[in-house]
Amino acid sequence: MGEKNRVLEFGPQARVNHHPPQPQQIQVDLKNATPKTCRNEISFTSPEFGLCSKVCGCDIFIPAVKLYTVSALVSPTGQELLAQQPVLVCKSCGQAVSV
User: Closest Cα partner for 39 from 55, 51, 27, 22?
Assistant: First the structure.
């Protein structure tokens, strides 16, 4: 009965939306953006120069999840918990970067 009265009073656009609102997608033009690259320093041995290092420089990252065990002593439930943190992993050297 309440829905009928609401429609009569406010019109059909007043129907209750039972779906939660979706996060708004932001459109960004990446032509003017600067690509991020891996800044991990890689050490290697060169026959000519000996021990050398270079910055990885890869610009491809793979999404991954880092897992943590939360002790029951500090857990809000009083039980041991498994927590997760999203990270990006460099495709070239495997260095993890927190998101």
Answer: 55
